Amino acid sequence: MKTIRTEVAVIGAGTSGMTGYRAAKAGGKQTLMIEANVYGTTCARVGCMPSKLLISAADAAHAMLAAPAFGVHPGDVRVDSKAVMARVRSERDRFVGFVVAGVEASPAEDRILGHARFVGPNQLQIDEHTLIEAERFVIATGSSPIVPDEWQQAGPRVISSDHVFDWEDLPESVAVAGTGVIGLELGQALHRLGVRVTVFGRGGSVAQLSDPDVLDVARSVMLEELDVRFKTRLVKVEAHGDGLAVTSEDTNGDQQVEHFSYLLSAIGRRPNVHKLGLEHTGLARDHHGIPLYDKQTMQCGTSAIFIAGDANDERPLLPEAADQGRIAGDNAARWPEVRPGLRRTPLTIAFTEPQIATAGASYAELCITHAGRFAVGKVSFENQGRSRVMLQNRGALRVYAEFRSGRFLGAEMVGPRAEHIGHLLAWAVQARLTVEAMLDMPFYHPVVEEGVRTALRDLAHHLANEPAHDHPCVDCTPAP
């Protein structure tokens, strides 16, 4: 076994790992990047990019079906599912190619393939061939989809989202477990492409929403199109012929057996930290086994180990992974003189139809940090002008601001153009704008953003009429 000495070792070559590597190199440190699998980020291979390719195809099919409502009759719609998946795979491979090229542009001596695990506070062993001695480390090992063992026993037709984008053809039917972003995005896309889809959710959650009013609207609009079984759990999954027999149970204890070609597990992702030998580092860890770390510096305790991206399970999103990787790599190069990095305002978007966005502080967070100290403004998109013109008049927006200061704090939304509106509202939070300042901004006509102005005007009214004992959190517990 050979030994390599370096100043910084970065474990993982995904989004956070690559940005961490580049930041450490820019800091003037000799840096190694270790990858256990293949090069290419989760986003490019099995996440945001291939899923948007599938969603775009689904949107095109849906637009054809929706056209008669405008008086436009395009004729019979035929989905060539093999062609759909061929484009998904082709464009996915193109995106992955760009990422791989970026990794391989780094010096070959800086890259090592193999599974890394700590064998001491300053040592990593790579498989059975290399021992790395380093002064500082960046853990950027990403995450993996959760597929319960009891489901996996039913065989290869129980899958995660990682497998969908390798399909050469679309199946006849899919059961989706999970009403989070991934489950709803893929479930709706497959449904619009002609697949029989049922989505099962253990509770009543919809994507990342926590505001009870917005949640109610989101459930209603999803149920208009999709077969979603809220508050229903899967109690048994068995192989059955060429597919699966899926047994579900509702809150009354009533069970139902249905047959599907596949079961897609979209119940969450688990950080890849459990085979890293963290017990040899001396780091304090939480009950999930994740090292305790500073969210501003990414430093684990007072050690020379930093953790970034999905591995720390804070905000498993590509922009966050890049920011955290940059902070971790920069501080690894600077250690022991670490400093806080730029943490941007939270922004999460689900590319469902209608889209779902949260910006800044969520309703649930404000019920903890600002209980009784924030006001709520709202708007429905049912009668919003531009939304009705486009026949996309479904959804609601709720916006939040702090009493007395009038500072804008955040928003939750389901509705048209949420991916763009979410950005505007996140920028307002990060700029620490007041509601008054936001209302001074230009609004064109007719645009969906006029709905934002309506919500802000409602919010301004509540701010100006602060009740003696205002408490918008009727129920401050997390949404089911």
Automatic annotation (TrEMBL):
Enzyme Commission code(s) on record: 1.8.1.4
Family matches, as InterPro entries: FAD/NAD-bd_sf, FAD/NAD-binding_dom, FAD/NAD-linked_Rdtase_dimer_sf, Pyr_nuc-diS_OxRdtase, Pyr_nucl-diS_OxRdtase_dimer
Cofactor(s), names only, from the UniProt record: FAD
Domain (Pyridine nucleotide-disulphide oxidoreductase dimerisation) ranges: 349-455
Enzymatic class: oxidoreductase
Pfam families, sorted: Pyr_redox_2, Pyr_redox_dim
Gene Ontology MF, one: dihydrolipoyl dehydrogenase (NADH) activity
Protein's UniProt keywords contain Glycoprotein: no
UniProt keyword annotations, A-Z: FAD, Flavoprotein, Oxidoreductase
SUPFAM superfamilies referenced in this protein's UniProt entry, alphabetically: FAD/NAD(P)-binding domain (SSF51905), FAD/NAD-linked reductases, dimerisation (C-terminal) domain (SSF55424)
Domain FAD/NAD(P)-binding, first and last residues per copy: 7-325
NCBIfam families: PRK06292.1-1
PANTHER family tied to this protein: MERCURIC REDUCTASE, PYRIDINE NUCLEOTIDE-DISULFIDE OXIDOREDUCTASE RCLA-RELATED
Family to which this protein belongs: Belongs to the class-I pyridine nucleotide-disulfide oxidoreductase family.
Protein name according to UniProt: Dihydrolipoyl dehydrogenase
